[in-house]
Design brief:
Blueprint: E1 2-10, H1 15-29, E2 33-36, E3 40-42, E4 52-61, H2 65-78, E5 93-100, E6 109-110, E7 115-116, H3 125-135, H4 147-157
Antiparallel strand pairs: 1-4, 1-5, 2-4, 3-4, 6-7
Helix pairs in contact: 1-2, 3-4
Length: 158
Amino acid sequence: MQEYVLALGANLGDREYYIGQAIEAIRTSCGPIQRQSRLLETEAMGAADRPFLNGALVIQSTLEPESLLTRLLAIEQSLGRTRTLRWGNRTIDLDIILWKDAHGNFPSVKTPTLTIPHPEMHKRLFVLGPVAEVAGDWRHAELQETVAELLKEKQKSG
């Protein structure tokens, strides 16, 4: 069994509803939820013009990373996510942030469709805060720092 940290975000419609529906779909189609962060309201970024609710989960799963991504994208689509504008408004956004394999290692993945650790995670407080709440001791495979350490650095630098 392996574990993943997933980030969740929503800024259209009933944000809590969409996040709740996504969490239930993840539970039933991807694997059991081990830990769940609080939901934080954060400012819009990119082309988005409405505030987000953001959170994070740790799940256990037998799925390999690409298979998990396929299921997450299907969940997004089932909840009305359309990908017309990069960093635009969305009903739901689900990202794989980190992966811990069955041996307790934190591997990296680079394919045409997936990069783990998430390439922007260390630059975004709205990701680091919730992720630190559920997996602060998890290590970034390339930067070799824990999520808690990355969060402290980002808070200092702004």
